[in-house]
Each structure stands twice: as C-alpha cells, then as structure tokens.
Amino acid sequence: MWIKCVLIFSAIFSFALLSHSQVVDSSIIKNLQIANEASKIQIQNLNKEMIELKAVLQRQQKQGYDKFTTASQFLDIAISSTNNLQSLILKESYRNKIVALNNPTSNELGFNLEAEIQTALKPLLAKTSKTNNNKLGQVVASVMQTGKTSLGLFPAGNVFTSLISMVGNVTVQEKKIEKEDLDNFIKSIEKYFNQYERLHQANKQFNIDMERLKSKLKILQEDIQLQLIDLIVILDKTTKRKQLKHYSTEDLMLQYFDGRKILEQLNKQPMGIQIQFPQDAIKGCKEITNNIQRIYDEYMKIYDSNYKEIRSVINDTKAVGTGIDQIKLNNTLKELEMLYIESKNMDAANLRLKTLFDRLELFIM
Fold it and tell me: Phi, psi at residue 65, to the nearest 5°?
C-alpha cells in the first residue's frame, strides 16, 4: 500500500514537473516570438529610416545640384552679355562712319575742307611774288593729313590756328597782300572749320565716355571671375584660388563649372556631407545683373547723345554755304540713321538682358 502511494506521488510529481516544463517552454517560445516580431518591426523601422534618409540626401543633393547648375547657367549668360557689351563699346560700323565724317579730305559733310582752303587761298596767291604757290599748296595738304589723330578725330581748332599762322606769315612777307585779304580768307574757311570742330568735340567726348565704360566693364568682368572662383572652391576644396586666377571666365566655366563638373564634385562628397550653396553668391549675382544693366543704360545714353550731336552738325552744315552738296549730306544722314537704328536694335538682342534676368529669377527662387 505504501509503495503504491509512493508510486502515485512520484507519477503526480513527474507530471507536475512535465507540465511546468511545458509551461516554461511555451513562455520562452512566446517571448522569443514577441522578441522576434519586435526585431522585425525595428528592422523595418530602420529600413524605413534609411530609405527616408537616403531620399533626403538625394533630395538635398539634387537641390544642391540644381542651385549650382542654375548659377552656372546664369554666369554663362552673364559672361556672354559682358562680351557683347565689349563689342558694343567698340561699335565698329558706327565708329567707321564717324571716322569717315572726320576726314577733311573727303566730302562726307557735303564739302571737301582741303579743296575749300585751296579755293580760298587763290586770291592771296594771285598777289604773291616771293612765295612758292605750289609748295604752299602742298604744305596745306600736309597739314590736313597730319592733323588727324589715331582715334580718327580731326582737331579742327588746332589745324585752323596753324593754317592761319602760316597764311599770316605769307601776308607779312608779301607786300601786295592786305590785312583785308587775310580777313576774307579767315572768314571764308572759318565756317567749315567750325563744323569739323563740333565733330571733334562730340567724338572726343564720346571716346572719353567709352573709355570710362571700358574701365567699368573690366571691373564687372573681374567680379564675374571672382564669383566663379568662389563657387568652384566651395565645390572642390582641393582646388586653390591662386591657380584659378590665371584662367579666363570661359575656361573656368568649361573646365570647372559646367553641369557635368558640378555633378561630379557633388558625387565625390562623403555620405551625410552636404555642400551648402552660399547665400552671398545670390547677392553677388544680383549685383552682376544690375551692373550689366547699368553699363548698358549708360552706354545707350552716350550713344544716343553722340548720334544726336552728329546729326545736328550734319543738319547745320546744310546752311554753311551755297556750294554744299545737299544730296551728299542727305545720304550721309540716312546712312548714319540706318546704322544707329540697326545697331541699337541689334545691341538689345545681342545683350540678352531678358534671358539674363530670367536666369536670375530662376536662380533666386
């Protein structure tokens, strides 16, 4: 009986132990399952965070790329605009016409100054006995030619003074030539010289103003170069400013700051490192745009003023004398006006100011 009880108790105890073990195993399995699910969720969250982080980095890189490439496109237009401004300031076709007007041996102003002088000299030369008339005529022609400057300007005032001094000496040497003869000579040629002197003053001022604009344009081109260098060294820390200063703006764009180079530099950055586009570059590009507009406006003001002054000289020349070639003057006026209108319209188109401001607007958005 006792043995039977022991066996029953032993069986019950073993069952209890087995049941407890099963409960423990079930609990462990359940905990493991919970932990596994938690790990899965954690891994999913980490993956999601990684995807989001990657998307953010890609978005930031794209934003950086867009900003730098927009800056590249803007500066490319700015370089083109300043190069065209330089061509405008030289103004070959217009300047060539003005040089032709300033030639005292031509008849672009409706008369030939040298011929008028030779004609006015004839009454005096008819009274000479000591003077070599042919030699005097040659000297007058020489004075007309040597009076012209390298800028194509004819300093009529200086030439007039030299000519009067020379004829005055002839008057002193020749007894038959009276002061009245000299006065008549001066009066007959002075009106022609006045027109050339007006041309000289107008074009002298034009050249001075254009030289001033050249200086302003050079400073502007240097500003564009510095802006380019600033952006290049931000993209590529291994590139030094000193080595870039010897490059032209066109070469800087081609070798360091086109779209392909920008993307290449952005892709070289370590993960998590984002190149920030400098805010002061936006301000600098605004100033570049405004300065291009200012120089162009100033250029047009100078150009308009010179054209109006030259046109006024030509119109006034019509009343200088009865021998003025009116047809020639009218043709000169038409040609000058045509050059003025055509070049003015072409100037505005070539400068690409609208494109420049459109690029700036995209850049600062």
Answer: -60, -45
CA distance 184 to 186: 5
Q: Is 178 left (phi over 0), alpha (psi -120 to 50) or beta?
A: beta
3-state secondary structure of 267: helix
Give the C-alpha separation, 235 to 262, whole Å.
7
Calculate the alpha carbon distances from 70 to 73, 99, 281, 323, 358 in Å.
5, 43, 12, 63, 11
**Cβ neighbours for 246, distance < 8 A, ≥ 6 positions apart:** none
Q: Using alpha carbons, select from 215, 211, 256, 258 the residue that is nearest to residue 236.
A: 256
Q: Is residue 307 part of a domain?
A: yes
pTM, entire model: 0.72
Residues 312, 35: Cα–Cα separation, whole Å: 97
Which residues form the domain of 243?
Answer: 76-364
* Class of residue 141 by CB neighbours under 10 A (exposed 0-12, middle 13-18, buried 19+): middle
Asked if residue 67 is part of any domain, the answer here is no
Mean pLDDT in each 10-residue stretch from start to end of the chain (365 residues)?
Answer: 55 52 57 62 55 44 70 90 83 76 82 88 88 82 65 71 87 89 90 89 89 94 94 89 91 90 82 76 91 91 92 92 90 89 74 80 74
Cα 24 to Cα 12, 28, 30, 209: the distances in Å are 18, 6, 10, 100
Total domains present in the chain: 1
Q: How far apart are CA 50 and CA 10, in angstroms?
A: 58
Could you give the dihedral angle defined by the CA atoms of residues 316, 317, 319 and 320, in that order, rounded to the nearest 10 degrees? 130
Q: What is the DSSP letter of 150?
A: T
